[in-house]
Structure formats: structure tokens, C-alpha cells
Amino acid sequence: MRVIQEVEPTCFEQAVGNPKWDNAMDDEMAVLDANVIWELVALLKDKKVIGCKWVYKIKHNVDGSVSKYKTRLVAKGYAQTYGINYEGTYNLVAKMTTTRAIIVMASVKGWSLHQMDVMNVFLHGDLQEEVYMEQPPDYVDHTHLNLVCRLKKPLYGLKQHVEFGQTR
How far apart are CA 56 and CA 22, in angstroms? Predict the structure, then answer.
């Protein structure tokens, strides 16, 4: 049996026009729109705009077949300047030692555990700083070409400290 391995695009130009990747980008934009990640505004003179790019990943089933074509719109956070469009960094990641400790404690005390996966959890935080981003490739609002995205919530790639239901 011959297995054909699909290649993940490394840039927008390689993906655009392929129905599988076009649908995946449409799905990602639908999630971003539903979560009201940004608003289109005029860029003020003293503000800096950062770019964005699409990242592509093919997800596979255990048998090697394709389960999903996944895209993610990523902000070019490397272009951010400390003190101008971000003040601090933070990343919510559970450490394995903490996870193991919780499992052991639940086992000893007879507690039941439940797992859940929150899709696009990063998009549910509140962005405190003003960050302006270019409109995404192929999703530019043609009635507002001169406007930029003022991010209300974080995107992957930003250096921001993200607040999840708390105040500083």
C-alpha cells in the first residue's frame, strides 16, 4: 500500500486557492469573528502596527489518515516593543508535576476527575494593552482598506500578559 504524505504549507501563498486550506482559514476566521477578537479602527499617528500570518497544520488520526486541516492566525509578536505595545508576558501552562500531584491526590482521596479541552482558550482572555495589527491576508475588509485591527483579545504570537476574569 502506498501512503501519500501531504505537505503543510509554509506560507499563505502556498495555501490560498486550495479548498481544504481555504475552508480551514474560513473556520478560523469564523471563530475569531464569533469571539470579537478585534475591531477595525484608524491607526493613530503615535501607534505601531504589527503584522500577522497564517500557520498551517495537518492533524492525523491514529491510522495516519488526515483528521483535520488546522489553521491559526498568528500575530507577529516579535515586532512588539516592550513598554510601547506590551508591558509583560505570561503564559497559562499546566506543569506536569502539578498535574501528577492532582491525579495522586484525587486517587488517594477517592475523587473523580474529568478532563475538558477548551478550544481556542487563549482567545477568551482580555487584552489590557492597545495592540494594532494589520488585517489578515485574504480577509481584508475592502470597504475599509485603510483601517487596522485593534485587538480586544489576544492572538497567538503576542507577548502580552493576559487576564482571565481578573483585574490587575
Answer: 11
